[in-house]
Amino acid sequence: MKFLLVFDFDHTIIDENSDTWIVKCAPEKKLPNGLRNSYQPGHWTEYMGRVFVYLGDNGIKEDEMKRTMTTIPFTAGMVDLLGFIGENKELFDCIIVSDSNTVFIDWILKAADFHKVFDEVFTNPAAFSSAGYLTVQNFHAHHCAKCPKNLCKRKVLKEYLDKQLERGVSYTQIVYIGDGGNDLCPVMFLKKDDIAMPRRGYTLEKKISQLAQDLSPVECSVLVWSSATDIMSYLKLLIKE
15: annotated binding-site residue? Predict the structure, then answer.
């Protein structure tokens, strides 16, 4: 009996978008219009690369960025949920699949001492250059037409499950917890014994509802959450069964 918990990060574990939160470091806490309007759909990572260059050009250093990022609030109930998972690690493998970056996620999890809860984090690789600028790269290349150029979460999940099977690990159930449009692709990969947990009022919930209305519902069960307490209640039932 082992369960795999797959978490998105922005608006799921934390109650904000880490990439837009970093703008608090910018002069006057905003970006110039030209930079803000330079985003092209599906090319978010490249856009963030330009944001990091702008911050670096304005003398924003690593320690200031770190201080700002560690003030992001966790989603309601999430601190208790991650504590509960940490206490029951023999039952739960736990991964993050996120369009944020390694530096931001690492800072936030370590500051709250939650890095041990997660077995692996799959996100865009980031690092500080010798000049002190934060740089970010695409997580991988893929051929999925539904997903942003830098990350197909279904591909990540499938490769992780294959690797675990090679190690002799299979899961009774996969629980996928997310909120965004890019969480739909991995949710559509889930089987009937698995469960998708979309955040109430966010894009993923709306997209799953739309599929049901179009009579092509997802195969897995769906349980909507508003607070991470809802997720914890479900996991408690799961381990009682």
Answer: no
